[in-house]
Amino acid sequence: MTPQEMEKRIVRYGDLKPCRTAFIDAHTPGSDQKENFTIIGGGVSESPDQHVHIADTPGFNIGAAGQPPKCRNSLHSHTTAEVFFVLKGRWRFFWGRWGNAGEVVCEEGDIFNIPTGIFRGFENIGTDYGMIMSILGGDDAGGGVTWAPQVIEDAKDHGLILGENGVLYDSKKGESLPHNVSPMPLLTDEQLKDYAEAPTSAVVRNYIGRYWDMMALAADEPCKVIGEQALLKDKPGFEVELLTRGSISEETYSVDRYEILMVMRGHWKLTWEGGETTLAPGDVCAIPPQLRHSLAPSMTGEASLYRVMNTKDPAGATWQG
Predict the structure, then answer these.
(1) What is the top-level taxon of the source organism (predicted)?
(2) Which CATH architecture has domain 210-310?
């Protein structure tokens, strides 16, 4: 593989192209400044303006959300796993029908395997622009987003209507629902009973990994973060590990699946048969199956990255009640 071919498999943090109209709350005050990034796979954006950096999926999708301080993402749910780690800033995650069933604050490097079957939202509570990276289960990321009813109603008051076809129509641009498309129906009271009001204690205990705890666990071997035998014991269709300079050698290796590298801290030298390159914080690299390569920090100091690989497990529900 030539360096030019490998570069097509790398999405550089500085080259990310945002979409500011990705979801139904794009005009809702408090949510109207957020940016959505689709890095690998089509993601769940409801807007044709969304730029997809790498279309092929390795069994899951990679995306990101960037938000200024006090900007929030509205309450929604997915049918497959949604995992976030904080790249920059300080974030409050909240959940429940009205967003008041529980909440947790995550710092840089922390990872949150958000259970399915729960309405969730998140807010940048830091002092600067923040970024969270996401992993969505399944090649089609579960077919889209299910919004809490009040989110759809609020959006309509600000000119955005979501069609039953999953497409947004913006009256501020002169758009309206096509005659053959109905509005997305609101969930009924009976349907809303299927969404859990998970207690904070259970979520924090079973679904959150703290960065510095994982860094300690990864001192001399990869820290298994999400997986059957991992810190967060779950099988969402992919497994996640945290690597540090002490937990990986410079020997070449290959795997039989796609290997997605998501750099958290430091600069990492990636070497393969055909070239080498350096990965920086926020960069995402999709290494193809069977390619022999090696990975090592290229500078002194803190170095960490998340490594994600698909498994044969279904990408379905994770909430265990």
Answers:
(1) Bacteria
(2) Sandwich (2.60)
Please indicate, yes or no, whether the overall pTM of this predicted structure exceeds 0.85: yes
How many alpha carbons lie under 13 Å from residue 73 in its C-beta half-sphere?
28
As given in the structure block, the two tokens for residue 154 are 């609020």
Quick count: other Cβ atoms within 10 Å of Cβ 124?
Answer: 27
**Lowest mean pLDDT, pick from 91-105, 213-227, 256-270, 301-315:** 301-315
> Which own/partner pairs from 208-212 qualify as long-range (CB within 8 Å, at least 24 positions apart)?
208/104, 208/106, 208/110, 208/111, 208/112, 208/113, 208/232, 209/110, 209/111, 209/112, 209/113, 210/107, 210/110, 211/107, 211/108, 211/109, 211/110, 211/111, 211/264, 211/304, 212/109
Q: Residue 123: what are its φ and ψ, rounded to 5°? A: -145, 135
User: Are domains 14-208 and 210-310 of this chain identical in fold?
Assistant: yes
Residue 109 near residue 211, CB atoms below 8 Å = yes
Note the pLDDT tens digit of each residue in 40-86. 988 777 777 889 999 988 999 999 999 999 999 999 998 888 999 99
Place of tokens 């993402």: 73
Q: Assign domain 14-208 to its CATH architecture.
A: Sandwich (2.60)
Start-to-end C-alpha separation, the chain? 46
Domain boundaries, the chain: 14-208, 210-310
